[in-house]
Amino acid sequence: MKKYYVKGGILVNTPFFKYENAGAGYGGDSMPDAEIIPTNKVLPSGEKYLLIDDKHPQSIFAEYYASSFFTTGYCWAPLFHKSYKDDYEEYNARIQDARMLMELSLKYGDERARGLLSRDSFLAVMNAFENFMADIILTRITNDENVFYDFASKRSEQKKIQKDLAAGRNGAAEQKIIEYVLRQSYCSADKIIETCKELFGQAIKVNQSIINLFMTRHLIAHRGGRKKDGTYVTFTNHEIEDTIRKITILVETIKKFIMERDHS
Predict the structure, then answer these.
(1) Separation of alpha carbons 214 and 216, rounded Å
(2) What is the pLDDT of residue 40?
(3) Dihedral of the CA atoms 8, 14, 15, 19 (nearest 10)?
(4) Which residue has the higher pLDDT, 30 or 42?
């Protein structure tokens, strides 16, 4: 693990950063094995410091020590300290949001309003799954530097990330990888299979009923739910609960082999 030393202060001004260890008041002689990072800002007093923010990222897989001060005004963003259990609990919380939307739809006498809210409820279930997939990926890669950089190196289509890696701009590459994970769609059998195999070493089967749900999700997300005949897809409470049941079986299958892997 890298150890960095700053001849001056360090100011962290972003929640999208974590560090393994950090401190201040260190003399250069006490950090003989640390790499020196130059400062990039100056206080009104004339004191130099390293600013770490969204425009000046640094690696999350390192220790940071300063000669004068180390200050942060933020707690780490949740993605940096969530466990797989937290990821699963977040999924369940978002499923309750979907149920809440469906309950609201049942209160409306207007058929159009019921249909609209039922589609929102269905999308909320799909979004809960997509968030779960993104969360477990981030939990995996942000807690293991080797896994993170192996994952990053395999995203060859992400040219900006590869340029940052080649230039040694690790902090910038890490932030781009995190953003990449968050903007991906995981309502795809191929994406699920690829992710589980790559990061958890587990082959998984995505059955046709799940693929059909993904197709419906795409119809709503990209066409507002309008079918070829001009009508709009709607859902009953039973259909939403059946969707939740099927997606939750998939989520629990993934959670099970992750937990077994971690305790093996």
Answers:
(1) 5
(2) 96
(3) -30
(4) 42
